[in-house]
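Long-time lurker, first post. I've been practising inverse folding by hand and with some scripts of my own, and I keep getting stuck on stretches where the structure tokens seem ambiguous. Below is the full token string for one chain I'm working on. Before anyone asks, I'm not after the true native sequence, just a reasonable design that respects the backbone. If someone could post their per-position residues I'd love to compare against what I wrote down in my notebook.
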């Protein structure tokens, strides 16, 4: 595997060319897009891409985030990490939840949502190392969001999932 370069991260190339600092969020967003492309092309039956989407959604949720997006992402992390669901199984759970039109609750998330970022995951080599980094990233975020755990479990019980 070749190491990541400026070509892999256009925002880093811009930073390098112009000597300006890109906001961390912009750098992480660029890494997320690269990671999403990577995870979509894995072609694995477990559909690891779902975990990438859920981790990024929780880590970057803010006041503009829709409650359904945050709820589904937290549910996805819980199912993956505590119930050992594959990405495909999480996706199916999301589809079941989406059938029930309802007002989704808002979650109060901590300011610190894990030590790892999409940039850290992209620094890992492709294949098993990066897949392991995706799992570690999810675990880092879920650990930071343990205050939401009981509400996530309650939502799953309400919908008879897990």
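-- Answer (accepted) --
I ran through it position by position. Result:
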């Amino acid at each position: 595997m070749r190491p990541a370069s400026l070509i892999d991260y256009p925002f880093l190339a811009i930073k390098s060319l112009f000597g300006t600092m890109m906001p961390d969020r912009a750098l992480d967003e660029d890494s997320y897009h690269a990671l999403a492309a990577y995870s979509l092309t894995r072609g694995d039956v477990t559909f690891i891409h779902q975990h990438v989407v859920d981790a990024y959604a929780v880590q970057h949720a803010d006041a503009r985030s829709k409650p359904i997006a945050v709820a589904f992402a937290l549910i996805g992390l819980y199912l993956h990490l505590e119930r050992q669901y594959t990405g495909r199984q999480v996706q199916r759970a999301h589809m079941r939840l989406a059938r029930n039109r309802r007002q989704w609750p808002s979650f109060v998330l901590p300011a610190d949502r894990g030590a790892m970022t999409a940039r850290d995951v992209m620094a890992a080599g492709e294949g098993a190392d990066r897949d392991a980094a995706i799992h570690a990233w999810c675990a880092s975020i879920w650990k930071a969001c343990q205050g939401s755990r009981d509400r996530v479990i309650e939502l799953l019980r309400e919908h008879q999932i897990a």
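A couple of notes from the structure itself: Residues 24-158 form one domain. The first helix runs from residue 10 to 18. Happy to go over any region you disagree with.
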